[in-house]
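SECTION: protein entry
WANTED: fold as tokens:
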Amino acid sequence: MFDGILMYVIGGAVIGILARFFKPGADPVGWIMTIVLGAAGAAIGGYVAGMLQVSNRALVWAIAIVAAIVLLFLWEAVRGKKARPA
């Protein structure tokens, strides 16, 4: 059980960092929220990939990263703050 949670945290961190790297503009998101949004993106991406019957692991990761990017945009919209220019 602990291994599964740890892997979601590590995977969420990696996916969250990659999503922040690919998303344009500065993100006023801390590391904890990056991990949370990355893990949520991984879960959503895995669900979508399962629905689309995608079995290619690289494509599943790409879908998870896209889902995390969408979550980053939604998080900014909900927070109502504009990203500060870099």
